[in-house]
Amino acid sequence: MKIRLRINAHTHEVETRPNQTLAQVLREDLGMTGTMMSCGEGECGSCTVLVDGTPVTSCLMLVGQAMGRDIRTIESVGTAAALDVVQQAFVDEQGFQCGACTPGFIMVAKAFLAENPTPTEHEASQAMSGNICRCGAHPYIVRAVLNAAGILAQQKGSEHEQSEL
Amino acid sequence: MNKVSFEIVGKGVPVKDANQKVSGTLTYATDFGVYRMAHGRILRSPHPYARVISINTSKAEALPGVIAVLTHFDTPRLNWEAPWFNYRGKVLDGIARFVGDEVAAVAADTVEQAEKALSLIAIEWEVLTPVLTVEEAAAKGAPQIRDEGNLRPSYLFEWGNLAEAEASADYSVSCDIRFPAQQYAPLGRNACVAEWQGDHLTLWTGSQTPSEVKDGLHEALGIPQSRITVQALPTGSSFGCWWTNNFMLLTALLARKAGRAVRIELDNDECMATVKRRHEERSRARMGCDSDGNLTFLDMDHVIDNGAYGFKDDVGFTSPDLWNGIKNGRASVTGINTNRVTAGCFRGVGDCTLSVAVERMADQLAEKVGLDPVAFRIKNQISAGERFRSLEQFETEALQASGGDLLAAVPPDLRDDWPKLFHLSSGSPLPMLRDGADRFRWNERFVGWGRPHHVDGPKHRAVGVGTGSHTCGVETEGNSSAIVRINPDGTAKACCSVGRHGNGSETTLAQVAAEALGLKLDQVEVEAGNTDACPWSHGSIASNTMFRTGWATRAAALDARAQLLAIAAQECFDDVDQAELDIRAGLIGFKETSGDNRQFSVSDVLNLMRGDAHGQTSSITGSSRQPMPPTTTFSRQFAVHFVEVEVDVETGEIRVLDYLALQDSGTIINPQVMKNQVIGGAICGLGYALYEELLFDSETGAVRNGNLLDYKVLRTGDFPPHAKVVFHESHDSIGPFGARGAGESPIAAAIPAACQAVYNATGVWVDLPMTPERVATALAKAATGKK
After folding, report:
1. Of B45, B69, B386, B400, which is the most exposed, with the fewest CB atoms less than 10 Å away?
2. According to the model, what pLDDT value does residue B313 have?
3. CATH architecture of B32-128+184-275
4. ipTM reported for the complex, 2 dp
5. pTM of the model
6. Is there a contact between A142 and B716 if contact means CB atoms under 8 Å apart?
């Protein structure tokens, strides 16, 4: 069957079967391999994407459930040549080693910071606990999220100043 | 030696693939494919031990889309061996030795067709009686599950006079500890693509040991190494999981039969239940000291469960070196095969288990003597320059074999700087113990053995310290080489076959090469996975990457640099002695400011050669002309970890509150990479100490929790984000720019630190993993005992 998906502000049409997961379609049919696959049962968060702004493990979402929704993958966040603030914070703190969990962590961090722009260390640490990093970059992941929050707040502050002028 | 300042070494630059990783654009092995490739799936045994009597593939072959079915009738009768005896056997041999063992494979147009075809393969089995534990496997009359038998010959080493020391010890303690099997729980899975062109095989897969994948293909398929190209691609976390794995060889054979490229991707269950795991182990030991707390003896028998295809008869065990105060001892290690998934080397192999037993006994002795754990370690652990007592017999053997010249294997030009064999060359836990105790406010927080420093209802807080050591690469399976090529445009490529799996070697080895060449870091890249480009290297094994392959990389870079300077001296600097020249940030000029400020870029010099009538080449290849001589007899890495835990004595729940990790690996080439190695080791070690245990079915030996839902690892909320890492950089006289090995001692220190902290919080030693249930049970048992 043909399914139409709205991904990263582009419309895609794929020939697939309804029993396919969103993760499979992203990786195998659309070549968006930035969404990683690990556990395949919604436990590790490697395959996290945003669906209407909410983090979803795409290995558990059937492709039919994704129809008509706004899907954002790591490919929409920033490019290797022009990273976004959260990505840059992960680079600066080196909040990863192998990188297999990183796109998932970044998608969760994006959603978390949108909801809670001024998190405490404890809140950030708890919020990142839904995902698994097997290399053990835990403190640097949490610090990256906190640093990104700081930079985003600064940017927002300077926007306010500019608008006041 | 005084610390030298470097241009590139020691800088915490981001890893070269950082932007790719955070943007999801790095191509991992699971992201790779070739045109016209078929998809393979593997048929796995439902029995722990069974022989195939007959196998009928006709229905599977008739299924639309199926291209080939591979059984043991199609595979060579050749044994292959993975590095460090992590596998020994045939690719398929018609005998299943664990639930999940490979039996056959199908290639089809789609994964679904291949999967369906598996269910159509009809097998008549002769079900055999399995041996599921080491005790069963070692019993008299037990079924022998391998041609070589179940038991490997015990690895034994002895030093001093054990009997005398035992008789005269003032205090002695004993232990019998069982260590659970830890699962790598690799994130990101792995895949393999194999393609034949004529009789040449190209294979793409994720591996820490590209050279050894080539060796394995050569052995298992019986084809010349010249007809094999392996391209190792990045993988997710590995830590010993992805070396040479049987499914890779199976993919190559399936592709040959299919006449088409074939890709096999392992699903998560396969990754966690059919590839490898840490050995299940058991330590039975005694240890003693005198009334002042000087250790006098260690007597240890250790058994490791190799699973079906592991073949280890010894594990890395440097604890007797670390505790060099142990004057007399004996240690034996015995490897035993069982009908369970293969066991192999996992980060810190041996030093995460045997050493944990040694640390526990040391702690128990310290308590008896009345010494604090930091002081007890300072009293009994090693300093640079000391002779390794436990290597006594090896030293004697080496002296005899070399006719008294221990440096016989070391080339004359290296002898001046070469450390004394069988003596620790550099580094020590002692300064880190002192420094760490200060930084961690140890004296405030350690209030006595088995006593929490803070009690709030059922919540007891206490601290613990643990020490770990490990080898810095090994030479016994071959000496690692590297090549550094300078391109006509003045950039360079270092070819070092160590794979890419998150340890940052594509960056740290580039830093080594750039420093040696005098180029800027962005002028140097590393090829870490192509066996046509890279000479043989042991790979990322046994903390070899920086110490031994890094040594070869530096040697190759210096060789290339010398060739380049010879050309520059002749062509650009009026035939001066090349020793007067230097390369800095990619520019060649005189070393001293001699008034002659002429400078030529590397590309200028090489481009002069392009039109050279003498036919000089315009690129330069440097190689590590002599392999690094043996180093295991003197080089070690050290870790000292401090942890504060809070134990709820009612629920048994443990929380990690504070953490400090100190590391002595010589010069730190890249502190950003290294802090992750250290903390990553700590977190993996705490995972093993607190949660992680692979469970096996008691009837079949099948893995019961081979998935991330049931196999628990530490999350961000389980570890303090303010944890600190401190480096003690004891310079190494021969390591590349003073660096030694690094990746494996941290995990070995974390585990005993946690065990000791829990003891101090509760007064009870708890076996691994210290789950709430185990802690509560141990506390209840202790309470009953007291009554």
Report:
1. B400
2. 87
3. Alpha-Beta Complex (3.90)
4. 0.97
5. 0.97
6. yes
